[in-house]
Amino acid sequence: MLINLSELFTCEGKKKEYTAETTLSSVEFSGDTYRILKAEPFKLEIESRTRNKFFMSGCLPVTVEAPCARCLEPVSFECVLDFEREFELKKDASFDGSLDEEPYLEGYNLDVDQLVCNELLLSLPMRVLCREDCKGICNRCGANLNYQTCTCDTRSLDPRMSVIQEIFNQFKEV
Ligand SMILES: [Zn+2]
Ligand SMILES: [Zn+2]
Predict the structure, then answer these.
(1) Is 78 helix (H, G, I), strand (E, B) or coil?
(2) More exposed terminus of the chain, fewer Cβ within 10 Å: N or C?
(3) pLDDT single digits (tens) 36-56
(4) Ligand 2 mean position to 155 CA, how many Å?
């Protein structure tokens, strides 16, 4: 969804409330895919501060699903995007792709999907766990240790240790 901001140019201090909606289905974050399960339409208030300076605020609860960092089972959780941002529109509409351009601005339009994507990336947790004490999966047999036990020798579970062990074995064979 694009919101055309040109109607706010006319007078300073003009405020408008939009019903914004996103069709974003997922975002990529630190190598994982976060699926968006639910995002209701939300109120987005935009105010023109000076000629090209704008201020916007909105609040939107999003239900996200991501794999547990330890056992990889999908976990769904709610992430509330509560934001206030000031941004500037370049009067010459030629989009030059310069770095200080906000990614959710396209000429005079505000791209709601990009905005939600941006806000999500800022508020997603660094690590998702299905539960605090998730036991993860055995990295030898792949068993989910929350549901079953395995008989693997877990003494060399640490992959760094097994590398050292391997080097050690190579020396022994020579
Ligand atoms: Zn887990
Ligand atoms: Zn195992």
Answers:
(1) strand
(2) C
(3) 999 999 999 999 988 778 999
(4) 11
